[in-house]
């Protein structure tokens, strides 16, 4: 049978109490399927479950008899389809912003990179993505329902010497939001002013914690990779009562061949030499996402700005590698020695029998590589005293777990996202593996060599 669904549903509010979505527009009709597969149908071509659209037309959709029953049955646990749908579209939009800014940075010799108080880099893209994601989430769910923990703040941006940067951020955010309808998202009616952009950035002032719902955002993870024209990620996760329930990772430079993940510092030159300009959309860049408990992780190609594509986008499932023989396994780790001890992991690799060269990649693209089956192990052992932040891990952890992998600290315990902005109580380091066998071997090797390490 077929049922008429209005595509011009506009925005509404999720009602937690009644577990349903209430559209703002009177007369709009919304079907929300409470099936485990709902998010996939929304992402991969089916439109049911998607409440945001740029189209002003009605369309007929076939609805199975049992699906119809599901949509009108009594309330069941929240399945976050609405949140996942908005999050994936928003990360796609953010990827296009970053690509534009990165291309501009690389072609210019001028300094588009600022330094924060800890000397780490921050760029127009970091602030612009944070403003854009914050604005879209508030617009989609109502600002009083949205709480965000995110990396950037406006202190550095507001500094007098960063005046030109602030102007560029406002311009970048508005250029990006003007594209929102192509992603099925509503943009602002009028361009945002400086105050609104600063407000959107500083609204991300949640400090997380054990209760309630908040988003964790790393607008650009691997900023160093970003400014070097290399790998970086946009990471958005939803955390509820201390558990990561959704993870979305945008990886705009994820190459078509996994070997090219390794070409840091030279990535852009190599890719532009080897990739024909007419390459297909799967060639470079993807968005990977998962919902906790679904047992599935999905990957979309980037929606390429220049190819006149509009939503909906296609998706395909991803799964971790089945390799569990250490001699065939590849491990990945941060590029910078300052962020993780390369000598300690080299020792672990040797004792476990990992024979391949480590894949050194900036950012949470490492988590994406494990989820896609392009590498089997990820290890990070920061220097003593460094506290890992939740936005550097949340999205990647749920994606790997749903793709079939394992993520724990070096003591074998799950990462704890319930203690505020830091992964408090993290035991030594973070280990992610394609399977329990490899994981146990690494953990045993850490135990055996930790005391004699300098960490
Ligand atoms: N000293 C130190 N030790 C450990 N980790 C640190 C340290 N300083 C920063 N960071 C965080 O590392 C994030 C980047 O991690 P990566 O795995 O991408 O490292 S690397 O850039 O490949 O070396 C990076 O994320 P972004 O700031 O979003 O780029 C930081 O949050
Ligand atoms: Mg980060
Ligand atoms: Mg960052
Ligand atoms: Mg940073």
Describe the structure concisely:
The chain has 455 residues and is α+β, with helices and mostly antiparallel strands.
What is the end-to-end distance?
A: 64 Å
Radius of gyration: 22 Å
Number of helices: 13
The amount of helix comes to 25-40%
Largest sheet: 7 strands, mixed
Question: How much strand content do the residues show?
Answer: 15-25%
Unique bound compounds: 3'-phosphate-adenosine-5'-phosphate sulfate, magnesium ion
Number of beta strands: 18
Given the C-alpha coordinates, what overall shape results?
globular
User: Ranges with pLDDT <50 over ≥5 residues?
Assistant: 1-71, 277-282
**Largest sheet: spatial strand order:** 7-8-9-10-11-12-13
Mean pLDDT: 83
- Helix- and strand-based class? alpha+beta
How would you describe this structure to a colleague?
The strands form five sheets. Strands 7-8-9-10-11-12-13 form a seven-stranded mixed sheet, sandwiched between helices. A five-stranded mixed sheet has the order 15-14-16-18-17, with helices on both faces. Helix 3 packs antiparallel against helix 4 (124-141) and helix 3 crosses helix 6. A hairpin with a 2-residue loop joins strand 9 (233-240) and strand 10 (243-251). It is α+β, with helices and mostly antiparallel strands and 455 residues long. The chain has 13 helices and 18 strands. Residues 218, 221, 392 line the site of one magnesium ion.
